[in-house]
Amino acid sequence: MSSAGKVIKCKAAVLWGLKQPFSIEEVEVAPPKACEVRIKILATGICRTDEHAISGAMTTKFPVIVGHEATGVVESIGEGVTSVKPGDKVIPLFLPQCGKCSSCINPNGNLCVKADVTGKGVLSDGTTRFTCKGKPVYHFMNTSTFSEYTVVDESSVTKIDANAPPEKVCLIGCGFSTGYGAAMKTAKVTPGSTCAVFGLGGVGLSVIMGCKSAGASRIIGIDLNKSKFEKAKAVGATECISPKDYTKPISEVLSEMTDNSVGYTFEVVGRLETMIDALASCHLSYGTSVVVGAPPSSKMLTYDPMLLFTGRTWKGCVFGGWKSKDDVPKLVSDFLAKKFDLDQLITHVLHFKDINEGFELLSQGKSIRSVILM
């Protein structure tokens, strides 16, 4: 019996307020309106950005269903949807691609105007498709994947190869693509170059994988936590260092280590001080530094403009610079063609009921990526 056009009751992990644990609740998911898609979620990753919603580091309305890195199957579509159909395997997109705004039209842009960067928590018509205990529940980053079913705008979903394993390619929905693209697409790392990666979490490791794929000859991983070094080397770092082991600035350490030849640096921590360290660490004349880690909201950065005047390039990067609807299916195909290995990033696979455990692993630094099976 088809569920199309009907309200679906299902389980979702609801956040009722700031700094509260997830509560597994029965929610009602309304059918998709025009230009919307209802998706049955198969697997979803736990990303640091979701934790930012819990802690208040990211503006969010409560109650909310977070989660934004997932794989699913289209359950039903609203009027006017043409890019997917029921039964298609898909990845929801926290960064939409409407195809019409100035960013989407420009070949170098990807920050679509439909992206919910201010935490509105609603779909295009200004309303939500979730209710729980008679109350509306807000959406998160256009996706809300910590629910057995979710509704997204057509611009926030893309069809992928039906053979793709959902528990692996869900990482292409955020963490992997963000890091890999920072090296491959935003920085455009060149063969034989030297790279330095600040922060060796899941996204930092994905940056290393991108640098390796681009042909970098030396990739230096930097983190205060030395327990991360073994994994970093396994995915492609040629060496790893901790700033704790030096009394001089890390930029000087890197310059001496490399005979002043660091062409590319990546800040994947999201700390203002580390952003300046990364900028100072790339070559003063031809170096490129990319800000990958999401900066703290409402904070200002002070730096010496001479760092730029000498010739450095300082770039930002959202979702690795990829155009989501166009590039995510290509990245899934590259994974199926074994151009990169996502297994190295997945440390835990959990059931939906254990979602709070997944966030505990994240906060304790015990996981790289935990994947929730729905």
TrEMBL record:
Annotated source species: Monodelphis domestica
SMART domains per record: PKS_ER (SM00829)
Keywords on record: Cytoplasm, Metal-binding, NAD, Oxidoreductase, Zinc
Domain Enoyl reductase (ER), first and last residues per copy: 17-372
Superkingdom per UniProt: Eukaryota
Pfam families in alphabetical order: ADH_N (PF08240), ADH_zinc_N (PF00107)
One Gene Ontology term, aspect cellular component: cytosol
Descriptive protein name: All-trans-retinol dehydrogenase [NAD(+)] ADH7
Compartment(s) where it occurs, according to its Swiss-Prot or TrEMBL record: Cytoplasm
Family to which this protein belongs: Belongs to the zinc-containing alcohol dehydrogenase family. Class-IV subfamily.
GO BP annotations, alphabetical order: retinoic acid metabolic process; retinol metabolic process
Keyword Nucleotidyltransferase carried by entry: no
EC nos: 1.1.1.1, 1.1.1.105, 1.1.1.66
Subunit-level organization: Homodimer.
Enzymatic reactions: all-trans-4-oxoretinol + NAD(+) = all-trans-4-oxoretinal + NADH + H(+); (E)-hex-2-en-1-ol + NAD(+) = (E)-hex-2-enal + NADH + H(+); a primary alcohol + NAD(+) = an aldehyde + NADH + H(+); 10-hydroxydecanoate + NAD(+) = 10-oxodecanoate + NADH + H(+)
Cofactor(s), names only, from the UniProt record: Zn(2+)
Coiled coil: none
